[in-house]
Protein backbone atom coordinates (compact mmCIF):
# COMPACT_ATOMS: atom_id res chain seq x y z
CA UNK A 1 0.00 0.00 0.00
CA UNK A 2 2.90 2.33 0.71
CA UNK A 3 4.34 1.88 -2.76
CA UNK A 4 0.92 2.13 -4.40
CA UNK A 5 0.34 5.34 -2.41
CA UNK A 6 -2.91 4.09 -0.88
CA UNK A 7 -3.14 5.65 2.56
CA UNK A 8 -3.32 3.31 5.54
CA UNK A 9 -5.89 3.85 8.28
CA UNK A 10 -5.58 2.82 11.91
CA UNK A 11 -8.05 3.49 14.72
CA UNK A 12 -8.20 2.52 18.36
CA UNK A 13 -10.70 0.07 19.81
CA UNK A 14 -10.81 -1.27 23.33
CA UNK A 15 -14.01 -3.33 23.15
CA UNK A 16 -16.07 -5.71 21.00
CA UNK A 17 -18.58 -3.13 19.73
CA UNK A 18 -16.00 -0.56 18.65
CA UNK A 19 -13.92 -3.29 17.05
CA UNK A 20 -16.91 -4.39 14.95
CA UNK A 21 -17.68 -0.79 13.96
CA UNK A 22 -14.12 0.08 12.99
CA UNK A 23 -13.64 -3.21 11.13
CA UNK A 24 -16.99 -2.95 9.28
CA UNK A 25 -15.99 0.51 8.02
CA UNK A 26 -12.92 -0.99 6.33
CA UNK A 27 -10.19 0.30 8.64
CA UNK A 28 -6.83 -1.36 7.91
CA UNK A 29 -5.56 -1.68 11.48
CA UNK A 30 -7.08 -1.62 14.95
CA UNK A 31 -4.88 -0.34 17.75
CA UNK A 32 -5.61 -1.49 21.28
CA UNK A 33 -3.77 1.55 22.59
CA UNK A 34 -2.63 2.29 26.11
CA UNK A 35 -4.62 5.50 25.55
CA UNK A 36 -7.33 3.35 27.16
CA UNK A 37 -5.87 4.48 30.48
CA UNK A 38 -7.04 8.01 29.72
CA UNK A 39 -10.04 7.33 27.47
CA UNK A 40 -11.78 4.58 29.42
CA UNK A 41 -10.09 4.56 32.83
CA UNK A 42 -10.16 8.35 33.17
CA UNK A 43 -6.54 8.70 34.24
CA UNK A 44 -4.25 11.70 33.67
CA UNK A 45 -1.78 9.78 31.52
CA UNK A 46 -1.05 6.26 30.26
CA UNK A 47 1.54 5.25 32.85
CA UNK A 48 -0.64 2.99 35.04
CA UNK A 49 -1.90 0.77 32.22
CA UNK A 50 -0.79 -2.84 32.70
CA UNK A 51 -0.16 -5.79 30.40
CA UNK A 52 -3.26 -7.40 31.96
CA UNK A 53 -5.33 -4.38 30.86
CA UNK A 54 -4.04 -4.62 27.28
CA UNK A 55 -4.56 -8.40 27.15
CA UNK A 56 -8.14 -8.05 28.46
CA UNK A 57 -9.06 -5.39 25.89
CA UNK A 58 -7.26 -7.15 23.02
CA UNK A 59 -9.33 -10.29 23.64
CA UNK A 60 -12.58 -8.33 23.39
CA UNK A 61 -11.37 -6.54 20.26
CA UNK A 62 -10.22 -9.78 18.63
CA UNK A 63 -13.78 -11.15 18.86
CA UNK A 64 -15.16 -8.21 16.86
CA UNK A 65 -12.54 -8.15 14.12
CA UNK A 66 -13.06 -9.78 10.75
CA UNK A 67 -10.22 -8.44 8.63
CA UNK A 68 -8.27 -5.59 10.24
CA UNK A 69 -4.79 -6.16 11.67
CA UNK A 70 -4.82 -5.91 15.47
CA UNK A 71 -1.92 -4.09 17.11
CA UNK A 72 -1.60 -4.34 20.91
CA UNK A 73 0.22 -1.53 22.68
CA UNK A 74 3.00 -2.48 25.09
CA UNK A 75 2.37 -0.47 28.25
CA UNK A 76 4.88 1.46 30.33
CA UNK A 77 7.46 -0.76 32.08
CA UNK A 78 6.52 -3.86 30.08
CA UNK A 79 9.57 -3.60 27.79
CA UNK A 80 12.05 -1.65 29.92
CA UNK A 81 13.37 -4.17 32.44
CA UNK A 82 14.86 -7.21 30.74
CA UNK A 83 14.72 -9.07 27.44
CA UNK A 84 12.99 -12.02 29.15
CA UNK A 85 10.22 -9.86 30.62
CA UNK A 86 9.85 -8.00 27.34
CA UNK A 87 9.37 -11.14 25.27
CA UNK A 88 6.99 -12.65 27.82
CA UNK A 89 4.86 -9.49 27.84
CA UNK A 90 4.79 -9.17 24.05
CA UNK A 91 4.00 -12.89 23.84
CA UNK A 92 1.05 -12.52 26.23
CA UNK A 93 -0.42 -9.74 24.09
CA UNK A 94 -0.21 -12.04 21.05
CA UNK A 95 -1.15 -15.33 22.66
CA UNK A 96 -3.67 -14.36 25.34
CA UNK A 97 -4.79 -11.11 23.75
CA UNK A 98 -4.86 -12.55 20.20
CA UNK A 99 -3.25 -9.44 18.70
CA UNK A 100 -1.28 -9.78 15.46
CA UNK A 101 1.51 -7.38 16.36
CA UNK A 102 2.69 -5.14 19.19
CA UNK A 103 3.62 -1.46 19.29
CA UNK A 104 6.06 0.18 21.64
CA UNK A 105 7.36 3.70 22.15
CA UNK A 106 10.88 5.02 21.65
CA UNK A 107 13.84 4.96 19.30
CA UNK A 108 17.47 3.82 19.40
CA UNK A 109 17.36 3.19 23.16
CA UNK A 110 14.68 0.51 22.73
CA UNK A 111 16.35 -1.41 19.93
CA UNK A 112 17.79 -4.32 21.96
CA UNK A 113 14.33 -5.04 23.40
CA UNK A 114 12.67 -4.71 19.98
CA UNK A 115 15.21 -7.20 18.66
CA UNK A 116 14.25 -9.78 21.27
CA UNK A 117 10.55 -9.41 20.38
CA UNK A 118 11.29 -9.78 16.67
CA UNK A 119 13.40 -12.86 17.48
CA UNK A 120 10.25 -14.36 19.02
CA UNK A 121 8.56 -13.93 15.60
CA UNK A 122 6.33 -11.08 16.77
CA UNK A 123 5.91 -8.13 14.36
CA UNK A 124 6.65 -4.77 15.99
CA UNK A 125 5.33 -1.30 15.18
CA UNK A 126 7.50 1.64 16.30
CA UNK A 127 6.35 4.98 17.76
CA UNK A 128 8.46 8.15 17.85
CA UNK A 129 8.00 11.90 18.26
CA UNK A 130 5.72 12.58 21.22
CA UNK A 131 5.81 9.33 23.17
CA UNK A 132 3.16 9.71 25.90
CA UNK A 133 4.83 7.18 28.21
CA UNK A 134 7.72 9.70 28.47
CA UNK A 135 5.35 12.45 29.69
CA UNK A 136 7.30 13.12 32.88
CA UNK A 137 10.71 12.98 31.19
CA UNK A 138 9.51 15.30 28.41
CA UNK A 139 7.87 17.70 30.89
CA UNK A 140 4.38 17.33 29.44
CA UNK A 141 2.54 16.42 26.25
CA UNK A 142 4.45 18.67 23.83
CA UNK A 143 5.11 18.71 20.10
CA UNK A 144 8.53 17.14 19.43
CA UNK A 145 11.10 17.85 16.70
CA UNK A 146 10.70 21.61 16.77
CA UNK A 147 14.43 22.49 16.91
CA UNK A 148 17.37 21.09 14.93
CA UNK A 149 18.63 18.84 17.71
CA UNK A 150 15.26 17.31 18.49
CA UNK A 151 14.52 16.99 14.77
CA UNK A 152 17.75 15.10 14.20
CA UNK A 153 16.95 12.75 17.09
CA UNK A 154 13.51 11.88 15.72
CA UNK A 155 14.93 11.19 12.23
CA UNK A 156 17.74 9.01 13.63
CA UNK A 157 15.32 7.09 15.82
CA UNK A 158 13.02 6.40 12.88
CA UNK A 159 15.91 5.22 10.69
CA UNK A 160 17.26 3.00 13.48
CA UNK A 161 13.82 1.43 13.98
CA UNK A 162 13.51 0.68 10.29
CA UNK A 163 16.97 -0.94 10.30
CA UNK A 164 15.96 -3.12 13.24
CA UNK A 165 12.97 -4.46 11.35
CA UNK A 166 9.79 -2.79 12.62
CA UNK A 167 7.01 -3.01 9.99
CA UNK A 168 5.65 0.54 10.42
CA UNK A 169 6.21 3.58 12.63
CA UNK A 170 3.74 5.90 14.34
CA UNK A 171 4.85 9.55 14.16
CA UNK A 172 3.09 11.48 16.92
CA UNK A 173 2.90 15.27 17.24
CA UNK A 174 5.81 16.43 15.10
CA UNK A 175 5.89 19.26 12.52
CA UNK A 176 4.45 18.16 9.20
CA UNK A 177 7.63 18.90 7.22
CA UNK A 178 9.62 16.63 9.56
CA UNK A 179 7.01 13.87 9.09
CA UNK A 180 7.29 14.38 5.32
CA UNK A 181 11.09 14.05 5.47
CA UNK A 182 10.91 10.85 7.54
CA UNK A 183 8.20 9.40 5.27
CA UNK A 184 10.38 10.14 2.26
CA UNK A 185 13.48 8.52 3.78
CA UNK A 186 11.83 5.33 5.06
CA UNK A 187 10.57 2.46 2.96
CA UNK A 188 8.25 1.16 5.71
CA UNK A 189 4.97 3.05 6.23
CA UNK A 190 4.67 6.01 8.59
CA UNK A 191 1.36 6.38 10.42
CA UNK A 192 0.79 9.94 11.62
CA UNK A 193 -1.16 11.44 14.49
CA UNK A 194 -0.72 15.17 14.75
CA UNK A 195 2.01 14.80 12.14
CA UNK A 196 0.40 16.32 9.05
CA UNK A 197 -0.83 14.99 5.72
CA UNK A 198 2.39 13.56 4.24
CA UNK A 199 2.51 10.30 6.23
CA UNK A 200 1.66 6.97 4.59
CA UNK A 201 -1.30 6.58 6.92
CA UNK A 202 -3.19 8.20 9.78
CA UNK A 203 -4.25 7.02 13.22
CA UNK A 204 -6.73 8.59 15.63
CA UNK A 205 -8.35 7.62 18.89
CA UNK A 206 -11.83 6.50 17.80
CA UNK A 207 -13.49 8.24 20.77
CA UNK A 208 -12.00 11.52 19.52
CA UNK A 209 -13.18 11.20 15.92
CA UNK A 210 -16.66 10.13 17.03
CA UNK A 211 -16.92 13.03 19.46
CA UNK A 212 -17.14 10.69 22.44
CA UNK A 213 -15.09 12.82 24.79
CA UNK A 214 -16.40 15.68 26.89
CA UNK A 215 -13.29 17.90 27.00
CA UNK A 216 -11.78 20.00 24.23
CA UNK A 217 -9.90 17.74 21.80
CA UNK A 218 -6.31 18.51 20.69
CA UNK A 219 -5.73 20.52 17.48
CA UNK A 220 -4.96 17.44 15.37
CA UNK A 221 -8.35 15.81 16.05
CA UNK A 222 -11.20 16.17 13.62
CA UNK A 223 -14.56 15.24 15.14
CA UNK A 224 -16.30 13.42 12.31
CA UNK A 225 -19.40 12.93 14.48
CA UNK A 226 -20.83 14.08 17.77
CA UNK A 227 -21.74 10.92 19.65
CA UNK A 228 -21.77 12.77 22.97
CA UNK A 229 -24.60 15.03 21.84
CA UNK A 230 -26.50 12.12 20.26
CA UNK A 231 -25.95 10.07 23.41
CA UNK A 232 -27.14 12.78 25.82
CA UNK A 233 -30.25 13.32 23.64
CA UNK A 234 -31.03 9.58 23.61
CA UNK A 235 -30.49 9.14 27.35
CA UNK A 236 -32.59 12.24 28.11
CA UNK A 237 -35.37 10.81 25.90
CA UNK A 238 -35.19 7.49 27.81
CA UNK A 239 -35.40 9.27 31.17
CA UNK A 240 -38.36 11.35 29.97
CA UNK A 241 -40.19 8.34 28.49
CA UNK A 242 -39.81 6.29 31.67
CA UNK A 243 -40.91 9.20 33.84
CA UNK A 244 -43.97 10.05 31.72
CA UNK A 245 -44.97 6.36 31.43
CA UNK A 246 -44.58 6.09 27.62
CA UNK A 247 -41.77 3.55 27.88
CA UNK A 248 -42.15 0.62 27.76
CA UNK A 249 -45.34 0.32 25.71
CA UNK A 250 -47.42 -2.88 25.66
CA UNK A 251 -45.85 -3.62 22.27
CA UNK A 252 -42.48 -3.61 23.96
CA UNK A 253 -43.74 -6.02 26.63
CA UNK A 254 -44.47 -9.79 26.79
CA UNK A 255 -47.93 -11.39 26.78
CA UNK A 256 -48.77 -14.52 28.74
CA UNK A 257 -49.34 -17.59 26.50
CA UNK A 258 -49.46 -21.40 26.86
CA UNK A 259 -46.04 -21.78 25.35
CA UNK A 260 -43.64 -19.90 27.55
CA UNK A 261 -41.51 -17.28 25.93
CA UNK A 262 -37.90 -18.07 25.65
CA UNK A 263 -36.73 -15.19 27.78
CA UNK A 264 -33.30 -13.85 27.28
CA UNK A 265 -32.20 -13.00 30.77
CA UNK A 266 -29.28 -10.73 31.55
O1 LIG B 1 -2.42 4.53 22.64
C1 LIG B 1 -2.75 5.06 21.55
O2 LIG B 1 -3.94 5.27 21.25
C2 LIG B 1 -1.68 5.40 20.63
C3 LIG B 1 -2.04 6.17 19.40
C4 LIG B 1 -2.48 7.53 19.73
C5 LIG B 1 -0.96 6.13 18.39
O3 LIG B 1 -0.56 5.06 20.87
NA1 LIG C 1 -0.17 4.34 22.99
TrEMBL record:
EC assignment: 2.1.2.11
GO molecular function: 3-methyl-2-oxobutanoate hydroxymethyltransferase activity; magnesium ion binding
Residues binding 3-methyl-2-oxobutanoate: 34-35, 73, 103
Domain of life: Bacteria
Broad class of enzyme this protein falls into: transferase
Catalytic activity, reaction form: (6R)-5,10-methylene-5,6,7,8-tetrahydrofolate + 3-methyl-2-oxobutanoate + H2O = 2-dehydropantoate + (6S)-5,6,7,8-tetrahydrofolate
Active-site residues, as the UniProt record annotates them: 172
UniProt xrefs under HAMAP family: PanB
Function per UniProt: Catalyzes the reversible reaction in which hydroxymethyl group from 5,10-methylenetetrahydrofolate is transferred onto alpha-ketoisovalerate to form ketopantoate.
Name under which the protein is recorded: 3-methyl-2-oxobutanoate hydroxymethyltransferase
Organism: Sulfidibacter corallicola
Amino acid sequence: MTSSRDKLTMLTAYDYWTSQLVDAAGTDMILVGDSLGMVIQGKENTLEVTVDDIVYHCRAVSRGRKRALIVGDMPYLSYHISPAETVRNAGRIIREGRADAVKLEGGSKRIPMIQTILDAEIPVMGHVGLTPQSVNALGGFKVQGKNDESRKRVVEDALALEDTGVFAIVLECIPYDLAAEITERLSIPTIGIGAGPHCDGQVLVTHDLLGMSLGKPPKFVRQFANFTETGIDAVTAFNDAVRDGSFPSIGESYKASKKRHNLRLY
